[in-house]
Amino acid sequence: MEVWIRQSMPYHPETDGPMPFPVPGWMWDRQLGERLYADRMGYMRRVDELGFDGLIFTEHHYGPNGGLTPSPTVMLAAATQVTQRIKLVTMGMALALYPHPVRVAEELAMVDNLSHGRLVVGLISSGAQSLYAYSADPHEEPGRYHEAYDLIVKAWTEENPFEWASEYYNYECVSILPRPLQVPHPPFWTTAARAESLEWAANHHIGLVASGVVSQAKETLGYYQQYAESECGWTPTAANRGLAREFYIAPTKAEIEEQFETVFRRDNEDAYERVFRHPRLEELQREKYTPRSYAYRTQGPAARGGRTVRGAEGGHYLIGDPDSLTEQILEQRKACDAGVLIIRPEMGHMSLDQVADRLELFAREVLPVIQKA
Question: What residues make up the domain containing 173?
Answer without folding.
Answer: 2-372
